[in-house]
Amino acid sequence: MKVTLNVILESLKDYRLESRVDESLETSFRQARLLVENEQDPDPEFLYIGMLSEAMSAAKRAGGVIFLGIHDKNMSEHEREHFQPAIVTIREDITPMDLFSEVQKSILTIQEWHDAMQEAVINQKSIQEILALSEPIIGNFITINDSAFSLLAYTKGIPTDDEVSIHMVEKGYHSPETVRKFKRVKRFDRWFNSGEEFVISTDRHFSNYVTVTRVFIHDETTFSQVVMHCNFRELSPGLIDMFKELTNFLGYHIERDLANRRNSIYSSIIADLMTGKISDPVIVTERAKSVGITPSSEMAVMLLAENLGENVVFSDRIAHDISQQFQYIKPVNYNQRLLLLLNHPNIRYYMNKQGIGERLNKFLEENNIYCGVSDTVNDLLDLPDAYLQAEFALDNRAHISHFEKGQASVQHSGNIIFFSDHYAELLLNYDKRADRIWRSSKYGRMLERLCKNDLEKNTNNLTILYSFLINERRATETAAATYMHRNNVLYRISRIEEMLDIRLDDPATRINLLITFLLFDQSAFAAAIPAPAQTAAEDESRDETA
To answer: Is this prediction's pTM over 0.85?
Structure first.
């Protein structure tokens, strides 16, 4: 392994140096060598050390060779122009032997470090273990994070007083404020579009010190970063060369373990969402994008269990087969269950029009597996509720009535149990989770949305819908109960159907809404429902407002 001249000169930084070496020459060396009198055929792979006068004499005979010359004579302007591209002048009172020993020690230290990192990679040591090897060599605080801004490793033996770094070490990820600041100062653009191998930041937006960042871009959504904070050693060409050597090994290790790390990151994001560890929308969005989740698309949680027996720990084969056969379904192990996250712009189209539902059901039947499916949600922060829905459907599958199987209003899909298809039955089989589950269901969200809309616009759509349902969709009776004209009732109902994307001629929808109304009546929202209008004129006025 060769060591660069920059690194060697870094070890001699306390000396007075004059260096104008031609960068087109070979500036990496396997060893140092003492310059002997009348040196024959000097090898460019060695750094030669001697007195300046000896170095000048040797440089006349050998082109392309670099020398360290201890000052023992003054050079003329002509000599400077001729020799300085090949000679680094050392203006110190030191013998060639002592200088040689110091330089050779520096080279051996870097070579031993290189060999230790190489051995660590071969023996599949962790990123943290590789990074720890750099602490006595580089001496600055270094962090490694993924595109979810989660901390992968840091130099535990190097302290830092930088607030951003302290937060990352304590929490394991960048704060929402830091991520927002990344966007505000367009740091992402510089990382990805500058074309620089190393991004050097001196603006101190995110650190009290100069930072050097190397970004490894894996694909359109995922990357890894290694960031060096120059909190003990100042930035220099030699320090950058050592940082490059370190990141070359780290980059190889990161790429090699990317698939496993992606699965780990994916599982980590799901676990953090389920437990409420992350709740800031900015952090949620960035972490989701880092593993290929599209936050703007629809999502549904699917839970698997073996037939009607106890939950089982699914083999890697099941998870592998699902990920291979179904592009938009991602398997994750969570809470000792195999959780599937379906992420697609239009889940209904994906499941029905493309035949994915039939294919998935066939796969589940072949493997003797049941699957509980939640309502569709549009916010990753709603995944905990979706998980409860899927779990509720799966856990109560034995209680689902079988006489409905021939009814057109209920969609049965073999081993797939949709929470929305059995909403009423599942709630009747009440347990302590039911209150949260009905609130988070699509029917609970419908009534909540109507209630909030009524409060904002001073309308009474919630009352109209309830009256329409209990009067079995008879517009005349509904009009009498709500002090409205029959035509206004029909108009309002059509607006409600459009707003909620439902059809009230579907029996299952009506049953589920009525049950939700009964539960809703006991909730805090019920007290806020506007009272029925007293006159048709007042109702028409509200219609104009709506």
So the answer is: no
